[in-house]
Amino acid sequence: MIKKLIPWALFLTGVAMPMPGTAQNGFALKPQTLANPDNEPAEEHPVPSERQMKWQETEFYAFFHYGMNTYTGQEWGYGNEAESTFAPTAAPNPEQWLEAAKAAGMRGGIAVVKHHDGFCLWPTATTTHNVTRGGNDFARNTNIPRDFAAAAKKLGMKYGFYISPWDRNSALYGTDKYVSDVFLRQCAELAQYGTDQFEMWFDGANGGDGYYGGANDRRSIDNTVYYDIPNLRDSVHKVCPDCVMWGVGGEARWIGNEAGWAGETNWSPENRGFAPEKNGMYGSEDGWYWLPGESDAKATNKGWFYHDGESPRTAEQLFTFYLETVGRNATLILNFPPDKSGALPEATVNVMHELGGLLKQRLGRDLAKKAKIEVSEVRTKGKRRSYVPKNMNDGDKDTYWATNDSTRTATVTLTWRKPVNAHYVALQEYIRKGQRIRAFKVETTADGTEWTERAPGVECTTVGYKRIIPLNGSTKEYGDGYAIKGLRITILDSKACPLLHTVSVY
Which of 21, 37, 59, 97 lies at 20 to 30 Å from 70 by C-alpha? Predict the structure, then answer.
């Protein structure tokens, strides 16, 4: 028998007097709520995910290429190397790597634990081509993922791993079994070394000639489907929710060169899962999803792996890399290769310390914190949020200044009671609401009356997560700076109402 459902209203017909706060039919009245009580600007899509935000905030981190190639002198091993060739002259020391990275002003690091030769720097169950068959006790006791993760946690740094999808050693490469039985399992093994990893790095080199278990042939794959990336992302994110899948993983893009620079006009949006390399430096203004750029560069004068006779670049050269990547809405992963002892050479460590000193000296004291800030317009405040100018120098990344929706141009003026010596101005958009600014200019005044436009020859176009503008127009010459009493930023064009969470002057 089907029972009739009795409307709730029938149970209320016998109520003589409505209860306080209820309507005559007995239903409780809900208090009226506004759709946007804080008057927050609408998102200008696309916008970053939470893990992409945390990744972008890492800004500057180290790359450590170490492995079989360190001992063969190769850059891309063929895959036929005897495991005994891997023979460190001392116990590899990831803690020393990361200590030097921290001294250089970096916030984390990524260790190469499997390159294209397929040799794994941990005791994996997926292949015998790993450290357990190394050439000495130092080799056989090596576990880079374990030791690297432990060192990072000890030092309060972020960490992640590079694992090559291409495997020139595996007989299964190019078949369905390689992905399920080798590659995905290796990624799962690495995910177990820490749930707080911030990035997995998947090189774009895929397929070609190799040893392949003795076949010594050439194998081609379609990397857009072969590696089952959606399944990989889901699997890794379940264990490591903040881990961005770089490159093949489709959550951050290659900046398009290995020379330590990004485009002065650099959009985080892009139109495809794998941005064309020629466009990596610039992104696409009207891209339909968020794919921010990462610049990978070598801090030494030879290869990615250690080579006898190599020397590090100067701290000044590396500082220029920083300005032209982190200072242009990208992140910078700078490579420092450990030598055959499994440690960074002394000369490399010294330069890393020098670089950290330059960053502190030149970008460590924010003059804007003591400036008075005035703007041409302030967005109407909401119930719990205001958009006042002081949000730009309060040290809080979650507060921001904004104009009203219909306003696309604006000025931000900083003034000091006494002159300050300035070299750089840094701008940061509140990118949780999307990247907006298309064009701006920077002017300074020495007397509070006459204004001079600065940054000659610089494309003052995009801002994004962070834009550092050298007032003298040069990323290579620090110069003497300018004695100023005021600095004015004029936003000339914006896709939507402009939002800035921080303005800094150094």
Answer: 59
